[in-house]
Amino acid sequence: MSETIKPCPNCMSPYGYAAGEDLFACPECGHEWNPENLADADVLKVLDANGNELKTGDSVIVIKDLPVKGAPKPVKAGTKVKNIRLTDGDHNIDCKIEGFGAMALKSEFVRKA
To answer: Are 107 and 54 contacting, i.e. CB atoms less than 8 angstroms apart?
Structure first.
């Protein structure tokens, strides 16, 4: 094995250690994992309103007017958003929208540009 310490995918502890030939364990949460099996499982898959897969760095277009808390006007349908960043959670796109600043969007309200 090339590394003897790997971060835990469960609790993100940096102290994961080799617990066998192909197994790692976390001393903080007790999670055990095989790093070779995580390669496919760790990929965050986010789909737009049309079912196209989005990736970090893509550009998207807002498909409906989205109200913004604290802003006098909504983000208008047709607004192009460049260089998105995918995150895990309910609002799974982080981006900056001109005139509004940093914002989190739901992928169901955008389409790939």
So the answer is: yes
